[in-house]
Amino acid sequence: MNTRRYSTQGNAAPTINAPHEEMRRRTLEVAGNAFRELGIKGVRMDDVAHRLGISKRTLYQLFTDKEQLLLACVQEQTRQRHERTLELAARTDSVLELLLWIFEDHFTELKGLSPSFISDLVKFPTVMQFIEEEQARRREQAVDFLQKGAAQGYFREDVNFGIIYDVTSQVLIATHLLSHLQHYSLHELFVNIVILHIRGCATEAGMRLIDDFLQKFRTRYQEPAACS
Fold first, then answer.
1. DSSP per residue over 91-159, as a string?
2. What phi and psi values does residue 161 have, to the nearest 5 degrees?
3. How many of the other CB atoms lie within 10 Å of CB of 152?
4. Residues in contact with 179: Cβ distance below 8 Å, sequence separation at least 6, in sequence order
5. pLDDT tens figures, 102-135
6. Mean pLDDT for the chain overall
7. d(CA 163, CA 160)
8. Tens digits of per-residue pLDDT, 173-212?
9. If you placed Cys at 38, which of 42, 46, 151, 221 could pair as Cys (CB 3.0 to 4.6 Å)?
């Protein structure tokens, strides 16, 4: 039996006795999906309220404007991604294996993402500030993680992983802002940019593991092999 204090049917609204946090969670889920599917510019607060089956006034009681709502969605997505990473990390001691699992998790997350989502983000300064702060916080962890992979024999020890992380991050951002690259899928850009850089840092043992991952990934997601 459903023990929640309200029930939903399709996009039906929660009843008035629904807890505030449950309403907020539902709003982030619905708004996050809309932003991902249609791009940020293509979603209005009216659209979110309609999908939830609530009034726009009720929505504004939760989030004062679209930027605050978007920021909360990005923060929640970041929290969920961190939880998934911890779950994956509990399954292996191999740094490279964990890294490839994280990549696949990100591939799945990117699937169905509107091509305009990333480029739309730059128009929201508070959201960009959060993303930049999060990237800076993750940088030290990421570099330390890659150095552990070198100690395990998967990456070359003569690589400056700080440079690799910084360049890869900036190239990924640039590809989303260049109009002539926007006809490529996010999956394709991610594979050809991130995997290319990581493979270039790998030892022979690391490259074998990466190539095996790519072969299985392309079979699983029907991703075409790169043209020679």
1. T-S-HHHHHHHHHHHHHHHHTT--THHHHHHTT-HHHHHHHHHHHHHHHHHHHHHHHHHHHTTSB-TT-
2. -70, -20
3. 16
4. none
5. 888 877 777 777 878 888 998 999 999 999 899 8
6. 83
7. 6
8. 676 666 666 677 666 777 777 888 889 999 999 999 999 9
9. 42
* Confidence check: pLDDT of 64 > 80: yes
Residue 59: count of CB within 10 angstroms of its CB: 19
CA distances from 138 to 81, 99, 121, 141 (A): 13, 14, 19, 5
Cβ–Cβ under 8 Å, residues 201 and 164: yes
Mean pLDDT of 92-103: 90
Region 145-174 average pLDDT:
88
- CA–CA gap between residue 223 and residue 70 (Å, rounded): 30
pLDDT of 227 reads 44
If DSSP codes are grouped into helix, strand and coil, which group holds residue 222? coil
Select from 221, 145, 228 the least CA-distant residue to 188. Answer: 221
What's the token pair of residue 120?
């739309």
C-alpha of 76 from chain center: 11
Length of the chain: 228
- φ/ψ (deg, to 5) at 202: -85, 155
Q: To which residue do tokens 């607060």 refer?
A: 45
